[in-house]
Each structure stands twice: as structure tokens, then as C-alpha cells.
Write a structure and sequence with these properties.
Layout (H helix, E strand, L loop, with lengths): L23
């Protein structure tokens, strides 16, 4: 019997948008 190798999934990082403050 042959063993199957499991593939690892890569997690994608989400970029956060910065808010600009008005003076």
C-alpha cells in the first residue's frame, strides 16, 4: 500500500487600508 502525501495550503494576508485624518 502506498501512502499519499498531503499538500499544505498557504494563507493569504489581507492588507488594511489606513485612514487619513483631516485637520
Amino acid at each position: 500500500k502506498k501512502k499519499k502525501k498531503k499538500k499544505k495550503k498557504k494563507k493569504k494576508k489581507k492588507k488594511r487600508k489606513k485612514k487619513k485624518k483631516k485637520k
